[in-house]
């Protein structure tokens, strides 16, 4: 169970990966902004097909949401306290928050990449298997944590 495993060694690689996903998700539309089509999918149905469209501004909303989620999980997971050397233990709850942040930022990156590909007609829909995999990745650590 996760409460019996020293998790501190996982903390910084996972934090770095979450930050990488965040930065990539912010930069991907930014570096391609001038070549993006005006019509961007903003929602996908249960089968992965786009069912709502918007302008390029959709990426601004995504960026705000990405930053907000990253910030909230960083604060609630005490990442800043760990950086300051507060000596707080990195426990199962801290790991769960960090893992959730990592998976959500990875999901955002995938969705942004997919939105760009669908807008450019390089893909027809989001990969539903990958969406289910992201959902499963969110749940797996919860199943491993023993509730006392």
What features would you highlight for this structure?
148 residues, mainly alpha, 7% strand, globular, transmembrane, membrane, transmembrane helix, DUF1648, DUF1648 domain-containing protein
Structural features, described:
This protein is 63% helix and 7% strand. The radius of gyration is 17 Å and the shape is globular. The chain has a two-stranded antiparallel ribbon with strand order 1-2. By secondary structure, it is mainly α. The longest helix is centred in the C-terminal third of the chain and has 28 residues. α1 runs antiparallel to α2, α1 packs parallel to α4 and α4 packs antiparallel against α5. It has one domain. This is DUF1648 domain-containing protein.
| Secondary structure category | mainly alpha
Q: How would a crystallographer describe the biggest sheet? A: 2 strands, antiparallel
Query: How many distinct beta strands?
Result: 2
* Strand content range: 5-15%
CA-atom Rg in angstroms: 17 Å
Number of DSSP helical runs: 5
Distance between the termini: 12 Å
Shape: globular
Furnish the topology, listing elements before pairings.
Blueprint: H1 8-31, E1 40-44, E2 50-54, H2 58-76, H3 79-83, H4 92-119, H5 128-144
Antiparallel strand pairs: 1-2
């Amino acid at each position: 169970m996760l409460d019996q495993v020293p998790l501190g060694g996982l903390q910084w690689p996972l934090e770095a990966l979450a930050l990488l996903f965040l930065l990539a998700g912010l930069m991907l539309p930014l570096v391609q902004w001038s070549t993006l089509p005006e019509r961007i999918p903003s929602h996908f149905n249960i089968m992965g097909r786009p069912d709502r469209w918007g302008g390029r501004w959709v990426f601004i909303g995504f960026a705000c949401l990405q930053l907000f989620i990253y910030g909230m999980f960083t604060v609630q997971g005490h990442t800043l306290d760990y950086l300051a050397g507060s000596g707080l233990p990195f426990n199962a709850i801290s790991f769960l928050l960090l893992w959730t942040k990592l998976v959500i930022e990875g999901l955002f990156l995938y969705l942004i990449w997919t939105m760009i590909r669908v807008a450019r007609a390089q893909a027809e829909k989001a990969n539903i298997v990958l969406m289910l995999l992201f959902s499963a990745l969110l749940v797996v650590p919860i199943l491993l944590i023993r509730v006392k």
